[in-house]
Amino acid sequence: MKVLIAGAGRLGTQVAQVLAAARNDVTLVDLDEERIAEMEKTPSVRLMAGDACDPVLLERAGALTCDLLIAATGQDEDNLVIGLLAKRRFGVARVAARVNDAENAWLFDARWGVDVAVPAATPLISLIEEATGATDTVALLRLSKAGVDVIETAITEDSRAAGHALGEIALPAGTVVATIVRDGRPTVPGPDVRLLPGDELLLVSHEATEREIHAAFQ
């Protein structure tokens, strides 16, 4: 599946990392060049700096050929413009847009090219499921034709992984860490990243069970 995401904040970054780890073709666009620079170590995500409200940039980012566009900026007006351009100018099959202010939710519908309006507080996995049209996590990842699963685990003070570097954790076969969320921000999951209480991890696996993955960290 080819995915174009506008907005490299926490939401857009997490979605990009999870979908890329599930072997989807992901492009992430953001106006802030510093945010894009922070994402340079993220594998398998194509990065572009620029204004996603600009149709020329959207075309360069692949809007003409993408299957799904997610407008995940922090500004409702931008998400509406991006959604409208995606649907009306580029004919994107499925458009999801983040609703930052609940009072604006009534605008996020087919008139603005939006197939799925996603409240800002929607959990990550639910957002991906709604955006892709899947009804559950298993169906979501079948879209990637990779036969994989997305599993979430959290590090607490009692977790045996707390204080250890990610590279020291013996992960089950066929499992990778897609992202680590710390203090509300996604962190590139390099082997030297030391796990701390409060960290939330999203992992992608095509072999391990949820119990096996939890056992590796807890």
Summarize the structure.
The protein has 218 residues and is an alpha/beta fold. The protein contains 7 helices and 10 strands.
Secondary structure: elements and pairs:
Elements: E1 2-6, H1 10-21, E2 25-30, H2 33-38, E3 45-49, H3 55-61, E4 68-71, H4 76-89, E5 94-99, E6 116-119, H5 124-132, H6 137-142, E7 149-154, E8 175-182, E9 185-187, E10 200-205, H7 210-217
Parallel strand pairs: 1-2, 1-4, 2-3, 4-5, 5-6
Antiparallel strand pairs: 7-10, 8-9, 8-10
Helix pairs in contact: 1-5
Structure overview:
The protein has 218 residues and is of the alpha/beta class. It is built from 7 helices and 10 strands. The protein has helices at residues 10-21, 33-38, 55-61, 76-89, 124-132, 137-142, 210-217; strands at 2-6, 25-30, 45-49, 68-71, 94-99, 116-119, 149-154, 175-182, 185-187, 200-205. Strands 3-2-1-4-5-6 form a 6-stranded parallel sheet, with helices on both faces. The longest helix is centred in the middle third of the chain and has 14 residues, at 76-89.
